[in-house]
Amino acid sequence: MIFILTAIILWSSLGIFIKMSPLPVHILMFYSNLLSCLILSFVVISKSFRQEFPKGRDMIKLMIIGPVSLVNTFSFFYAYKNTSIANAILTHYTAPLFVAIMASFFLHEKLTVRIIASVAAATAGMWIMLDMSAESFVSMLLKGDSNTVGIAAGIFSGFGYAVLVVALRAFSLSMNVVIMAFVQNLMITLLLMPFVDFSVQFSGSIVSILVMGVVHSTLAPVLYFRGIKDVTANRAAILGYLEPVCAILLAFFFLGESITIKTALGGMIILFSGWLTILKNRSSASA
């Protein structure tokens, strides 16, 4: 459990380093993922790891998931850049609900009354957090309001993460997690390369790139996957709900971001709806 908790705490600091950097999201992603690839390459070139590399269809499936991972990560980073850390991470945590809905359609998992109630609760929580009507939200979105666009990106990142989870379940990829992390980071780096202006100065972002590349893209995933071997999936999912709590507290102490009552209330409802979804999975597993 200590491995998972450590990974969660490390991941919860991601928003701080994204906001510290003046670089555009895609350039920040490119350099941090490139650094992670360089670090992991020293591991995967060993003979034992080379023998575990996926072949044929498994490699194709993993490469297909690469663009999905890019969309998910980009929208999440974009949310951090354009709205508060609280808004970004709480809207991202709609992911369990999207997973439950998509799994019922694509993986033929049962859609229960509890899941429907969870979706309704999460929807209510988001509108409380937004503190505006649907018409106003769309209007602000079309006008390019930074905060509104950031919130929309957070919701989309939750959807993107759900697509990623369902795709991994459907493909049933059983491979070394270090290799999986390496290939995913490599795919993101290659896909972003054509859009990177290499003349951009990133001297003010060196700390962010180093920390994100070493800690958030390399160390945290390895710790998490090591911990998941000793902890049930349901318990790991519940522990994951410490991430938004830690992220919001870190944003409060290090960035001075305030937390409104409506953000706190809406966020708690969203987290509760996700917990209901996990509770459903736990009940199914024990049945």
Biggest pleated sheet: none
Low-confidence stretches: none
Return the string of H and E elements.
HHHHHHHHHHHHHHH
Q: Output mean pLDDT.
A: 82
> N- to C-terminal separation?
24 Å
| Fraction of residues in helix | over 70%
Q: Let me know the number of strands.
A: 0
Strand content: under 5%
Q: What is the number of helical segments per DSSP (H or I, 4+ residues)? A: 15
Number of domains: 1
The outline comes out as globular
Structural class: mainly alpha
Radius of gyration (CA) equals 19 Å
Structure description:
This protein is mostly helical and 287 residues long. The protein has one domain (2-286). It contains 15 helices and no strands. The protein is globular, with a radius of gyration of 19 Å. The two termini are 24 Å apart. The relative contact order is 0.22.
